[in-house]
Amino acid sequence: MPEIPLTRVVSVTSADPRHPAENLLRPDGGGRWRGAAAGEKQLSVVLELGGSRPIHSLHIGNDGAAFVEVLVGSSAGGDFQVLLPSAALMSPSESRAGAEPRRVRLFGPDSLVKGPAQGTWDRLRVVLSQPYCQSRPFGLSFIRLFAAPEDDEVPPEAPVRRLGPFTVREEGGSPRRPP
What we know:
By secondary structure, this protein is mainly beta. The chain has helices spanning 92-97, 114-118; strands spanning 3-4, 6-12, 33-34, 42-49, 55-63, 67-73, 81-88, 104-107, 123-129, 139-147, 161-163, 166-168. It starts with a strand and ends in an 11-residue tail after the last strand. One of its GO terms (biological process) is single strand break repair. This is XRCC1 protein.
């Protein structure tokens, strides 16, 4: 699936100078976006997409937010439409304790609203909220968007994954030697 690049930050409600929203444009850069201060209940950022293609899936890296909602829109105007309804990133108890603040959630085509997911958009609004903990700033580590594969595209061969000295194989593969 081809990744849809993010080209610029159109607007942001709040950003820490050390963790600006522009860090979301470089998902592999290791930076993150956080609100300017603890105690904010909701943050939002509007991002411009590098191409107008239907959105097939989303990968979202959390940084302390309890909920995320993703909307899509057009630079030509009109209202934003809900692509991903509000989804939990942390439970209330995890939010209060600060446990697992950097969890990654993958949202496939079944999680997205069908109508907006099939349209073409060039703007993305991400709305984060954290109603359970007012003592820590929150935000996102990254967000990545993927377009549906073209009909003539062949899916890439699954890469060999290594976990330390071990090779992880896909489900259903046969072992190289008997146990």
